[in-house]
Design brief:
Blueprint (H helix, E strand, L loop, with lengths): L2 H12 L4 H4 L4 H12 L6 H8 L8 H12 L2 H17 L1 H13 L6 H12 L1 H13 L5 H14 L4 H8 L1 H35 L1
Length: about 200
Amino acid sequence: MTAVSRKRRMRKDWGQLGDHMRALPNDQWRSFVDHLVTQKPGHGALTRACRAAGFGKQSTPTNLAKLAWRMSRDERFIAAVAEQSRKVLRLGHPEAVAAVLALVRNSKHRDHMRAVDAVLSRADPIESYSRHNIEVLHRTIDPDREALEELRALRELGTPREKLLALFGHNGLDRIEALEAADTSRRADSAKVIEGKVVEMEAAE
């Protein structure tokens, strides 16, 4: 392969890279990014990636570390690292699927049911969404509760009793007010029970 054909092939490969990787000055910079993203993280990762990319062959470790640090602060470099990191992460999907399936097949694992639920909930989200909608549509509304809430809303607006009688009728208003009284009494009893528990706890302390 001639130098010209090799250069053309390299340019063709550049076109398959992301915008930020192609925006780097040269392939050596791109290699620096690749090594940094794919190598084992830890102390000295920048310097190791910089050396693996071919920078600072005649430099001392200290000077190479300084060079790697300066390059890593370049906005183009930072953007390219983020771009490549997202790609590498997406390449990990098969491993993630394998790990989930391993949990599904291991019924004794403590996360077995969570893995099963994860697979079922993601296998056909459209069906799950439709089923949820059906459940909502079939939910019945309590007409007495609705009327009681309407009565309370009208009273907060200062609606006169004559208007309430016109809206609900004599018998209807009496029945709703009876429900209101029962609901108020139930809430009062519940508040007393809660208050009694608080007092007992304070006394115990």
